Structures are given as C-alpha cells and as structure tokens.
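Re: Re: ligand-bound prediction request (bumping)

Still looking for help on this. To restate: I need the protein modeled with LNCXM5UN bound, output as structure tokens. Inputs repeated here so nobody has to scroll up.
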Amino acid sequence: METVRVNLGARSYDIALAHGATAGLGAFVRAALPKTSTVLVVGDSNSRPHAESIQAALTGAGLRAGGAVVPAGEASKCLDQLAVLYDALYELAADRSTAVVAVGGGVIGDLAGFAAATYNRGLPLVMVPTTLLSMVDSSVGGKTGINHPKGKNLIGSFHQPAGVWIDLAFLDTLPAREFISGLAEVVKYGVILDADFFAYLEAHAHAVRTREPGALLRVVTRSCRLKADVVEQDEYERTGLRAVLNYGHTFAHAFETCGGYGTLLHGEAVSIGMECAARLAREIGLIGDEFVSRQTKLLDALGLPTAPPVRWPIDDLIAVMRRDKKAVGGQMRFILPTRMGEVKLFDDVPEPLVRAVLESAVSR
Ligand SMILES: O=C(O)C(=O)C[C@@H](O)[C@H](O)[C@H](O)COP(=O)(O)O
Ligand SMILES: [Zn+2]
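Reply:
Sorry for the wait, this slipped through. Here it is.
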C-alpha cells in the first residue's frame, strides 16, 4: 500500500493506494474519523456494485452504513440530485459526525462532496474514486460542487476530504471511454508541472493505455503527488498558483456547457481544451509548433479527442468563457504553456485570437 500525504495543517489527509483491498477501507475510515459511527455511502448507477460492496465492508467494520444512488452522468451534478442526498442524510438522522463516503467518478465526488460540505454546515467526507479521472484529480484537493445550466461548477465550495481511498482494481473494469477520459488530466500534469512526467507518458503511452499495472501505479501516484503539491500551496485558489490546474479548462467548460453536460466526458473536453490552449499559446508566440505537435501526438496516442465533436456557435462558447470562474469583470483569463512543464495565467489575450482558435477547432 502506498500513501500520498496532503499537508494542510488541521485539514491534512492521506491518499491511500491499494489494489483489490476493500476490506482495509473500514480501518482507514475509522483511523481518519475516530468519532464517526454512521456513514452515507453515495454512488451512481455505474458505481453501484462498488458502492454496495463498500457499504457492506463498512457495515462489517462496525459502522452504521446507509446508501444513496443517483443516475450516472454529468447531468446529475444538479440541485435535484443534491436534494436526493440531503433527503438521504435526513432519513439517516445524520449528525455532525456522520460521514459521506463518495464512491464513483468526478460527478459523485463533486455532488456528494458538496452535500457533505453543506448539510448541517459541514460533514466529514471520504472519497473512494472508482474512475481514473477521480483518482488522479477530482477526489484530491477539496473542490466540490454542482453545475448551473449556464456554467460548469458555478455552485460549490472547498471542502477537503478526511481521506481518499484509491483501489486501483476498480480500473480493471472501467469502460475504455471513461478510462481514456481520465488520461487527459494526467497529460495535464505533465504539461503544467513536470516535463519528465510528460516524457514518461510519451515513452509509455502503450503501457498506460493498456492499463499495465506498474504504469498505472506510477501514473496515479505521481498525479496525486503533483496535485497535492499545488493544493498545499494554494488551497483556496487565492494566489493564482492553483489556477494552473485549470489548464485547458476555460475551453473545456465551454464545450461541456454548450453540449448540455451530456455530449463530452469531462476529460474529453479537457483534452480538446488543452489542444485549443496550446494553439492559443502558439498564436501569441509563447511556444512553437514543436510543443503543439508533441502534445497533440501524446493525446492521439492515448486515444483522446483534440477537436470538438459538434460545431457549437463561437458566440455561445465565448459567452460561457466570459463567465468562467477565473474571469474578472467579463475578461477571459487563460492558463497557457510557456514551455513543457510550465504554464502561466494570462488575462490580456485578445478575443479575436480566441475566436480564431475556436473557429479552427470546430472546423477540424
Ligand atoms: O482542483 C483544481 O483546482 C482543478 O482545477 C482541477 C480540475 O481538473 C477540475 O476539473 C476542477 O473541478 C475544475 O474546477 P473549476 O474551479 O474550474 O470548476
Ligand atoms: Zn478537470
């Protein structure tokens, strides 16, 4: 078992990496939350079998464990499904020691995490990510929330988990599309923070894509460490450092929003968004052709998309991007690469350049 520690003072926690060891989860939860005797295990229609076995394991560890299931998919990050979780917590007679255990991908982590952040003004949260994307990104760092029909993640809070339990065995049965989607956030870490990691992914793209266990352990552990390092320095995205994790996301959120949260998986949108961001950086003169083609080649090799599947109107995409959480006074802000392993925040990108990049993306 490997452990990645997230050092946040009183809110510090462990990310435990196991393989096929659900039985250990009870002890992990008990150690992280000694005052907790009741938990609500939240899953979706995809993660339901995992959620049920985790509920049974926690019951076996002496905890009173209730369950709640929402429909799978990004559309569940909404007020209606949040209300379902509030009702389940009420039915369970949750008090402030009751923990929410989120078993699933990014949607479940964000939704159940936000329910935990807000019910009774805050309940402890344990993340049990079952998809690659949630293992390497969304279960770590405390961002929780739901979507507004006009903007992704517009309603949310920072609420750190008390622990993250990553069972890599869940990846064995993860559908290919979901698995590949998660690789986009992995590539992101290489581009924004770690040129050596990017080179490792280039050299081991086949092993990663075919889920070779050694490659997966390395990819998940390194991604968690890189993300934890950023979160430790800028937990609440105040200094601008944490914003680097948003590379590709200004574009991605516009694609997801204009697609009605049903066309693209988040990682697919991030992959297309990173392609757009790299092209934008090239337009501005921050990087050259070689950077763009290196990134495109890796995304291709991993099976990720680099062009939007739908010709969404550019005006609609721009309107969403202007309301991105990073925007100030309607002025779009972008995280752009300056060289491999390094990105910076830019708030003075001329709109015609953004339009040109979007135009070429939707025409591909
Ligand atoms: O943890 C972060 O910080 C990130 O930006 C990670 C992103 O990959 C993730 O998609 C996050 O939910 C985006 O956050 P948002 O604040 O841009 O909605
Ligand atoms: Zn993301």
